[in-house]
Structures are given as structure tokens and as C-alpha cells.
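Q: C-alpha cells for this one, please.
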Amino acid sequence: MSKTTIKQAGRAKIGLLGEIGFLMVALTATLVVLVQSVALMVISKSMTDDLRKEAARTTEEAVAILEVPLYILDSDQCNRIGRTLLASGRISGIRIVSSYSDVILDVADSDPGATIESTTGEIMRNGISLGSYRLDFSDRQIRDMNARIMNVFFWVIVTIVISITATIRLILVRRFVRAFSPINRAFASIEGGEYGVRIPESKYADIDRMVENINRMAGEIEKNSNSLRRANQTLEQKVEARTAELRKSLDDLGHAQERLVHSEKMSALGGLSAGIAHELNTPLGAILSSNRVLLDFLDKGLPETLKAFSALDGEGRGRFLEICEIARDSAGKQDLSISTRKQRKLAEDELLARGVEKPDEVAELLVEMGIRGNLSRLGEWLGESGAAGVLRNAEPVTAARRMAEVIEIAGGKAANVVAALRSYLTPDDAKQSGIIDLEAEIEKMLTLMQNILKHGITIERDYAGVMVRGSAESLGQVWLNLIRNAAQAMDFKGTLTISTSIAEDGRVTVSIGDTGTGIAPENRDKIFEPFFSTKKYGEGMGIGLDICKRITEGHGGTIGFESEPGNTVFTVILPEGRKKGTGE
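A: Here is the predicted structure, written as C-alpha cells:
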């Protein structure tokens, strides 16, 4: 198939990531339903307010009407007026008491569960108290309407949740497995020395581009392997025939040996194909891990959340939805220059000053949900006794949204694995450069690797708020490799330290340190050599640091390290950067 035919076929096919995006839109539908629920509550509140205003007008009219008959001591007329008001349906209960003849009319409230407060007061004329009144008002119609609509919304939400869960389980996971199974089988064959294996085309254009590159690379490896095999078959004869000549040409022999080593390294590219599967493992692991969190939330957490939401009163539900909205608006806007521990301390101090109960628990929830900066928006409500419970109920919803963001980021990284391999072979991505938020890009990599970092690794950040010129895609590969290497060096238990700084001349320094065992002195000169690795079998092919070096140098920067037991720090220096908030 020619390149032109492949391109035309690619344009005719849909993309795997496009399908993932479509499924994520389905998740958004749930948020739309929640927004509609908020609208319903706003409308209900407006109707209740109108009813209260109507109650006030009715009270004024009733007092004005009762004033004259009370003044002339006409109890029968007062009684008729009260019963007329009851018959009109504007009130649900009434009590009229004369200062001279005691109780004139006393009808109990027919709707004791109403939320509209009864109105009471004295009836005065010319400074003389003629009597007192109590008027009761019913909001049963509003409550009945709200109950019916909320019941409809509940079943709509349940239907959407079931549909999304079925979609993810029956379509998304199966399509991922079906799309990548041929690639994984081909990797296993290539790793076993079967370089003639070829991966068949899929129905996805983006997968086919990766398959095309892998097949082409496998063909080159097969060709080089066959050449080496033929050379080995005749090597002894050639050595015997040219022994005398080779003795006179030691320099030529040295060059021939270098070419032989190079050919052997080309054979090792067969193992590199298996390394591509390893490079895909991290983003796919993040997708599957985040998806499991989402499924667990949808299967277990959401029913509990809905049950807790239903148990809340009107104000509690409003606060619940407001918290979800704040968390959504705050996504990606957290101040990354402040450590999580310091954020909790700042929030706890402010909550303590406001007189909030359990300020440590509330502070931890606010920081975990990423809404610490919205304390003023939440107002004095945090001081109420049920605030912590509403926050706890809302936290799983905000966590589910964060997992959806992780899936989006990881899906993008999976699509760029082939681009990372191209960066290793011809690192020219730096040409597509621009001003990027350095710390935000590093945080994306931390989010991507959250599933391997969160259990035993403590992350300490010291950010200077830096923008840098470069390619976000290629530099992201640098941060991903350095962070993964640090985690593996610590056996996934220890402290990962990430810091950024900027010098007066605009040079930006990024340091990534770990508390692992360190790099042995005999390996330090070889650490950036391709295919050199001290990792456990299956953890890497030894090209990660070489990729980091090529990408950094392609940006005009340098990379180095310092290592001792318990403290290894890799330092990347990039030539062009500036502080956030300053101009170009």
C-alpha cells in the first residue's frame, strides 16, 4: 500500500481518541442534569418568595378589613370576614381575638407542614389595641410540584448513570483491548526474535500510523539481522583469507569493530519494539486506574452520594451543587507554588479565625477538592454544623471529575508515544515551540503517574512560577522519564522533590530529586548512553535518559546530575524563560 493510499485511508477512518472524547461527552450529560436540578431549586425558591410576598399583602388587607368591625365591637362581622378569607383559599388557618370579647374565630392550620411562617400581630386604631390576629399560609402546592419533578429527575439521573457505566464497560474497555491486542502479540513475537512478524491494520487511523512505523522498523531490523547472519556464516573464511592484511591495518580493524558494534546495536532495536509497549504502559495504566476509580464511584459512591444528597434540606442541596460548581471552575487554577501541607495550614488558620468547627477536617476537604481559594465565596456557611458533612458528600463527585481529567491527559500521552520514539531518532520537535507554563506541564506528568506515586511516594514542590520557551510535548517526555526513573530508583517508596528557579539572564533550572540508593560511581559515565540500564528486567530499555539528553540539547539546554546514597538530583537547564505575569 502506497503512502498516498495510507493517508487517504486514514482520512476515511475515525480516530480511537475521537471515540473516547465522545464517551466523555456522555459523562458531561450527568453534569447537565445537575445544572437542571439547580434551576429547579431556583425556580422553587422564587415561587416560595412570591408566596411570602402574597402572604404579607393578604395580612395587610385582612388587618385593614378587620379594623372597623373590631372598633365597633361587631364580632359577627369579624367572624364572617375571617371565614370569607378561609373560603378564598388565600389562607389555611386563622385566629381573631378581640380585646373586649375574647376569641371571635379560631380555625386550626390545615397545613401544619408548611414552610411559610404564620403572621401574627395586634390590630390598632388611634393608639388603642382592638385585638390580635394569626394568619396561616400553605405551600402544599409548591411542595407537591417539587416532589414530582425531583422524582422525575432522580430516575433520569439513574438512567444516565447506568447508560454511562454500560458504555464504559461494554465499549471503551473492549475497544482498547481489541485495538491493542495485535500490537502486544507482535511485540512478544519481535522480542522472541521473530522479526518477520507484521501487525495487521486496525479500523483506527491513529493506531494504523503507529502500526505502520512499527512494521517499518521491524522490517529494518529483520534486514539488518539477516545481514548479520549472512556475515557470521562467512566470517571465519574472511578472517582466514585476510589475516595478513588485517595485521597490517590495525586502524581499519578498529573501524570494522566499531561498525560491528553499531550493527549489533541495530539488532537490539528489536527489543526496542517491546519498549514501546512499556512506554504505553504508564498512560494506559493511568487511564485504567482512573477508569476503575470512576467505575467504583459510579457503582458504589454515586448511589451513596445520591442518597446523602436526597437527605439534605434545601439549603444543603444548594451548597452541595455550589461546591461541585466551584470545584469545576477551580480545575487547573490551584496555586502550585504552595505545598499541600502549607495549603492545609493556611486554610485551617482562616477557618479557625471564622470560628468553624473541626477546622482541620474542613481544611483537608477544601484542599483535597482544590477549592481552598474560594473560602470567601462559601461565606459564613462553613461555620454551620452540617458543612463538613456536605463537603464529605461532595468530595467523591469532584474526585470523579479529576479522574476524567486524568483520562483525558493520559489518552493524549498514549497517542504521542510514537512521537516520543521519533524524538529519539530525529529529535526536532523543539522547532514547534512556544511559551509554556513549566510547572503546569510538570503537574500534568504527576497526574499521569498518580497511580504509581500516590501509595508510597511523598511529593515536595518548590515552584518559582516560571514560563519557558519550548515544545510542551517533547519537554513533557523529559519530565515523564525523570519522574519515572526517580520513582523506580526509590522502589516507589520515598520522597520526590521537584523545584524550579530562574536566573537574572533568563535561564531556567528544573531539579528532580529522589531518596533512592543513588547511582554507582562505575555507572555514572555511562548513564546517558543509549541501551544502558541498571533497572530491573521489564522496567525499561535504557533509552529514557538518552531521549532526555537529546530533547534538552535540542532546546539549547543541558542536563546533568549529582548522586549519593539517599539523594540523587537530575538538573535540566533551559536557556529562555521568564516569570509568570511578565511580558515576552
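A few notes: The CA atoms of residues 430 and 554 lie 6 Å apart. DSSP finds 18 helices and twelve strands in the chain.
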